[in-house]
Amino acid sequence: MILKGTNLKLSFGGLVAVKNVSFEIKEKSIFGIIGPNGAGKTTLFNIISGVYRPETGTLYYKDKDITKLPTYKRARLGIARTHQIVKPLGELTVIENVMVGACFGKKNYNLKQAQKVVLDVINFVGLSTKMFTLANQLNVAFKKRLELARALANEPEIVLLDEVLAGLNPKEVDSMLEIILKIKQNGITIIMIEHLMHATMKISDLIMVLDSGEKIAQGTPSEISNNQKVIEAYLGDPKLALQLVGEK
Ligand SMILES: Nc1ncnc2c1ncn2[C@@H]1O[C@H](COP(=O)(O)OP(=O)(O)OP(=O)(O)O)[C@@H](O)[C@H]1O
Fold first, then answer.
1. Which helix (H) or strand (E) holds 171?
2. Ligand 1 centroid vs 40 CA: distance in angstroms?
């Protein structure tokens, strides 16, 4: 297991956003986290990346207890993330943005070494033609790719993808799914939060379902789409329920 959480709990005032959630994630797999609005997905991501410390529970990265490590130390160990609201440095070009990611990565590269990684990553996510475009001139789909490139420039072992498919049209979703599968083929573990259920189902090896902070199910995509508890949790949102049973 590359990442393991046991009994993780976090509250905001009286609201328990994540309730004693445990999980184990296999190396080089795609682990999807789904759940209705307010289920605790982003809060759990923030616990994993180190933005929040859980009140109870332990987080292990390759058997090392990282529960109390700050975000930047987790990044150096190999845990990178994208953000739901993409935040590129708008006045910098694509290459400059990715350079920033590479220079703050775990390997302390000098500029020349970083440049090589940056060019590889930009090519990998399909941004070569936009290399010298200012980040704030990119459309949403390219901004999402840039966000991904910045995370990959850290040469991580785990990437946390926070709704990288949100706001993309079906063709862009398919291209992004291809990129995510290529990341997995390169030996990187992927943990993704998504609202687009059919897309998550298509590529995840294992899916964990949260509802009101609790883990209500875990299984393969087909197990999850037939799980009674999951179907009930999604009934409150007919659009999501339809996605769950296979409609697009
Ligand atoms: N910083 C915060 N302060 C107070 N309450 C918060 C905070 N962050 C999240 N919450 C609450 O915790 C619960 C879980 O929120 P979270 O954002 O983790 O859910 P989510 O599953 O990511 O939802 P969504 O799919 O809408 O992004 C919600 O009830 C939310 O209102």
1. helix 170-185
2. 6
| Residue 42 CA, ligand 1 centroid: distance in Å | 7
Q: Is 42 in the pocket of ligand 1 (CB under 6 A)?
A: yes
Specify the CATH number for the domain of residue 168. 3.40.50.300
Q: Per-residue pLDDT for the chain (248 aa), expressed as one digit of tens each?
A: 999 999 999 999 999 999 999 999 999 999 999 988 899 999 999 999 999 999 999 999 999 999 999 998 998 899 998 877 666 676 889 998 898 877 766 566 777 888 888 999 999 999 999 999 999 999 999 999 999 999 999 889 999 999 999 889 999 999 999 999 999 999 999 999 988 788 888 999 999 999 999 999 999 998 998 888 888 887 666 666 666 655 54
First to last CA, the chain: 33
Judge if 13 and 54 occupy the same domain: yes
- Of 99, 131, 154, which residue sits at a domain end? 154
Domain that holds residue 7: 3-78+157-245
Same domain, 133 and 225: no
pTM score of the predicted model: 0.91
